[in-house]
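Entry 14. Ran structure prediction on the chain below.
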Amino acid sequence: MSKLKVIIAGAGLGGLCLAQILRRADVEVEIFESDSGPWDRPQGYRLHIDRDAAAAVHHDCRYDTQGIAADTERRARQDAEALAC
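Output, structure tokens:
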């Protein structure tokens, strides 16, 4: 039986947290993001996370979210380079 793989559209807070939760459940995850990096456009305007939500994010995403973001950025660059050729 093949291992379950989930494709996530978007490397925002929700996508990265979902990826971490799925990874801990031994689910293969691939994240697709249209921006080539975190500074491509202004984001997060007036995003409010209350105390309960912050605790949930801390609990569920306490692992390598920066590593996932860096991997997503690396893949986006590779895709952009491949399309430019």
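The chain has three helices and two strands. Will compare against last week's run tomorrow.
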